[in-house]
């Protein structure tokens, strides 16, 4: 083998040798942990150090828990920690959305691919809306925050529903993933209806603790949404996220 050929082979190996190889299960867990830990910190810190302000509403009745908007957007350092967590996890979330799109091309029948494309679009919309509502807080940009929040809820619900429909039409189903997706979707929908009911009741009757039930319902909506996205752990098991010099790829283990 000539020197030029050996050099070319070594250069090729250098170009395509992985810098980092991460099991996708760990990657999915790490990405979800950013908003999860930030969420837990914001709620806990608000209750411990901003209780009166965080639980105050126009009804001026006693409440035990702050709303999510108040906990993540009205106080410091909660606001900065939440925004930082969302910013860090945003790009990996977009990457996972693209990987799901490619995944659907391999596991769906041709007549169902258009549903996978709509699910991909809704996944992107959900992530963009989450970024906007996190950085445009309700205390300073209420109109923008409200519209982004509504978009996030609608986008995430439609995405979860479509994903469950898609998974029921896979060529080969992942039973564990599908089972947990359905459970988290049902939990999410039930708590959204509960949150709407308690919010309207609080505004109309101003009863003590009703806003607390609204806040608790909100928490479960957010946590079940995170758990739904964590089911990527099952969808991409036995795969590694590999970082090369010129990009990343999902490869078989």
From TrEMBL:
<feature type="transmembrane region" description="Helical">
    <location>
        <begin position="27"/>
        <end position="48"/>
    </location>
</feature>
<keyword id="KW-0812">Transmembrane</keyword>
<feature type="transmembrane region" description="Helical">
    <location>
        <begin position="212"/>
        <end position="236"/>
    </location>
</feature>
<dbReference type="InterPro" id="IPR019402">
    <property type="entry name" value="CWH43_N"/>
</dbReference>
<feature type="transmembrane region" description="Helical">
    <location>
        <begin position="148"/>
        <end position="170"/>
    </location>
</feature>
<dbReference type="Pfam" id="PF10277">
    <property type="entry name" value="Frag1"/>
</dbReference>
<dbReference type="GO" id="GO:0000139">
    <property type="term" value="C:Golgi membrane"/>
</dbReference>
<keyword id="KW-0472">Membrane</keyword>
<protein>
    <recommendedName>
        <fullName>CWH43-like N-terminal domain-containing protein</fullName>
    </recommendedName>
</protein>
<dbReference type="GO" id="GO:0005789">
    <property type="term" value="C:endoplasmic reticulum membrane"/>
</dbReference>
<dbReference type="InterPro" id="IPR039545">
    <property type="entry name" value="PGAP2"/>
</dbReference>
<feature type="transmembrane region" description="Helical">
    <location>
        <begin position="182"/>
        <end position="200"/>
    </location>
</feature>
<keyword id="KW-1133">Transmembrane helix</keyword>
<feature type="domain" description="CWH43-like N-terminal">
    <location>
        <begin position="26"/>
        <end position="238"/>
    </location>
</feature>
<feature type="transmembrane region" description="Helical">
    <location>
        <begin position="113"/>
        <end position="136"/>
    </location>
</feature>
<comment type="similarity">
    <text>Belongs to the PGAP2 family.</text>
</comment>
<keyword id="KW-0337">GPI-anchor biosynthesis</keyword>
<keyword id="KW-0333">Golgi apparatus</keyword>
<dbReference type="GO" id="GO:0006506">
    <property type="term" value="P:GPI anchor biosynthetic process"/>
</dbReference>
């Amino acid at each position: 083998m000539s020197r030029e050929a050996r050099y070319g082979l070594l250069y090729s190996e250098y170009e395509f040798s992985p810098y980092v190889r991460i099991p996708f299960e760990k990657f999915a867990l790490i990405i979800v942990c950013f908003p999860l830990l930030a969420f837990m910190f914001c709620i806990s810190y608000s209750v411990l150090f901003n209780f009166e302000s965080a639980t105050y509403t126009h009804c001026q009745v006693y409440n035990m828990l702050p709303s999510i908007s108040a906990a993540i957007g009205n106080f410091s350092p909660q606001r900065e920690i939440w925004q930082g967590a969302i910013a860090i996890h945003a790009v990996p979330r977009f990457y996972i959305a693209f990987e799901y799109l490619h995944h659907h091309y391999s596991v769906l029948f041709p007549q169902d691919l258009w549903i996978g494309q709509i699910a991909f679009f809704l996944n992107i919309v959900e992530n963009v809306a989450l970024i906007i509502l996190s950085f445009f807080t309700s205390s300073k940009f209420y109109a923008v925050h409200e519209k982004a929040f509504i978009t996030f809820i609608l986008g995430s619900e439609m995405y979860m529903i479509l994903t469950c429909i898609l998974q029921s039409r896979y060529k080969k189903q992942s039973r564990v993933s599908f089972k947990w997706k359905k459970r988290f979707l049902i939990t999410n929908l039930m708590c959204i209806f509960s949150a709407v009911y308690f919010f309207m009741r609080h505004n109309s009757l101003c009863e003590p603790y009703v806003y607390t039930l609204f806040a608790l319902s909100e928490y479960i909506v957010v946590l079940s949404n995170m758990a739904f996205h964590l089911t990527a752990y099952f969808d991409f098991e036995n795969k590694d996220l590999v970082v090369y010099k010129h990009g990343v790829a999902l490869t078989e283990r």
